[in-house]
């Protein structure tokens, strides 16, 4: 006797959803911590440098008043 095929579609949907959510979470975490944060750290260093240069210019200008 052949066993009945019961719930295969539902199980496939659950497996696909769990796999998709897991893969999306892993790839999202990789992008955030592996690409975004290092790039943003470099950007932050650059912005701080530019901000300090502008403040130095403004201080020098204020000293002439």
Properties at a glance:
1 helix, rod-shaped, mainly alpha, 65 residues
Write the topology of this structure.
Elements: H1 8-63
Query: End-to-end span in angstroms?
Result: 99 Å
Summarize the helix and strand pattern as letters.
Answer: H
- Overall mean pLDDT score? 93
Largest sheet: none
Identify low-pLDDT runs: none
* Backbone CA Rg: 28 Å
**Hey, roughly how much beta strand do the residues contain?**
under 5%
Class based on secondary structure composition and strand pairing = mainly alpha
Please describe what this structure looks like.
The chain has one helix at residues 8-63. By secondary structure, it is an all-alpha fold. It is rod-shaped and about 100 Å long.
């Amino acid at each position: 006797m052949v066993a009945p095929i019961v719930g295969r579609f539902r199980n496939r949907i659950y497996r696909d959803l769990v796999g998709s959510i897991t893969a999306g979470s892993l790839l999202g975490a990789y992008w955030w911590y592996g690409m975004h944060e290092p790039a943003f750290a470099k950007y932050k260093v650059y912005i701080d440098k530019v901000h300090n240069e502008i403040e130095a210019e403004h201080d020098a200008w204020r000293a002439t008043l």
